[in-house]
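dude i think i finally got it to work??
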Amino acid sequence: MKQSIALVLVLSTISSSTLANLGANSESIEDTYGTIVQRRLRDNGNVSVVYTQGRYLYMVTFANNRSISESYSRANGSDLSEKEITKFLKANSGAKWAPTSTGAERRFRTTDGTAEATYGILNGRPALTVRALNP
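look at this
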C-alpha cells in the first residue's frame, strides 16, 4: 500500500512538471510552479512572475496570459545538473533539442525552430532560460 501511494506521488510530480511550459496559461503555470515570490509589469505590457517550489526558482514571462519565456534555477544558486537541464528542455517542447553553443554560454534550439534555450548566469545565478521564437 505504501509503495502504491509513493508511486502515485512520483507519477503526479512527473506529470505536473510537464504540464507547465511555453505556451501554457498563467493558471496552469501557477498550479505547477507554486508560490509567487514576485510579480512585475514590464514596460512592454508583458508580466514577469517569479515562483518558488522545492529547490527551484521559476521566472516566467507572460504575454497575453501565455508563457513566452521561462527560466529555471536552483534556489541555493548552485548549477543545474545535466539531468535537470534535459528535464526542463523536454518539458518545453515535444521537438528534439540540439546544442548550438558558440561561446561560454551553452545554447540549445529545437529542431523544429520553435524555441531556443540558454544556460548561463541570470540575476547572479546559473539558470536555464527557454523562450518561444514565435510567441
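Residues 1-19 have pLDDT under 50 and may be disordered.
im so relieved honestly
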